[in-house]
Specification:
Strands 2, 3, 4, 6, 7 and 10 form a six-stranded antiparallel beta sheet that branches. A four-stranded antiparallel beta sheet has the order 1-5-9-8. It has helices spanning about 1-25, 40, 55-60, 60-70, 90, 180, 200-225, and strands at about 35, 45, 95, 100-105, 115-120, 130-140, 145-150, 150-155, 160-165, 170-175. The chain is about 35% helix and about 25% strand. By secondary structure, the protein is of the alpha+beta class. Helix 1 runs antiparallel to helix 7 (about 200-225). The relative contact order is 0.18. It has seven helices and ten strands.
């Protein structure tokens, strides 16, 4: 009877740990943005890699290398002005909220009355620390850099809706209040995607680990006295 109770306790502890890890894994994101609503059926988003931007190797190699350098952290947002001087003023003072990602239509995309692509993105890193949110876009069709102003920025749902003439490499940029981004004031939690387990789940995991340890010790003692 005692053994059954101990095994039951061990099983319960293991279940708590598994659930905690599962929830954490489900909350993690392999990409910085996802598609929501109808956009999920009419667009696809992928990481900004050389492979995914392969068409730029021939048409715009300088733009490709700049995008990859930005994503690798070896080039700044403002350095893009070297390739697009007319955007220098709009880029000044802004920061990246995401790296460049590839955004493409499938099934024809969703078109507005004037023929633009209407897209809604979920951006986990979006907080109220970011203001004047924009989308920095390199048009592979028109071979130019441009800044797209969203038609809607929803901080509560962390979603951005925007219209594009065409689709290709995109990054989210904004003015960032560093005091809010670092959590020193206000309610913003930062401008980087969350990568760790929050304190609540850390407590659950720690508690389950302690429970599991106690159960194992009890089982050993039971064997010695048996």
């Amino acid at each position: 009877m005692m053994k059954k109770r101990i095994f039951g306790t061990i099983l319960a502890a293991a279940l708590v740990v598994t659930q905690a890890i599962s929830v954490f894994a489900a909350g993690s994101r392999t990409t910085q943005v996802t598609l929501v609503g109808d956009s999920a059926s009419y667009y696809e988003v992928s990481e900004g890699t050389r492979e995914n931007f392969a068409e730029l190797e021939q048409t715009a190699p300088e733009a490709l290398e700049k995008i990859l350098a930005v994503n690798a952290g070896t080039a700044t947002l403002q350095s893009i002005a070297e390739l697009a001087p007319d955007l220098a003023g709009e880029l000044e003072g802004k920061s990246f909220i995401t790296k460049f990602f590839d955004l493409r239509p499938i099934n024809g995309g969703i078109k507005t009355a004037d023929g633009k692509y209407l897209v809604t993105l979920s951006v986990p890193a979006l907080t109220e620390a970011a203001t004047d949110v924009k989308l920095l876009h390199y048009s592979t069709d028109r071979n130019l850099w441009e800044i797209v102003t969203p038609t809607d920025v929803n901080y509560t749902n962390k979603q951005i809706t925007a219209e594009f003439i065409d689709l290709s490499p995109v990054a989210v940029i904004a003015d960032v209040d560093e005091s809010k981004a670092t959590g020193t004031s206000g309610s913003a939690t930062g401008t980087a995607p969350k990568t760790g387990v929050d304190s609540q789940w850390s407590a659950y995991i720690a508690g389950a680990a302690v429970l599991l340890g106690i159960s194992v010790m009890a089982l050993r003692r039971n064997k010695k006295t048996a």
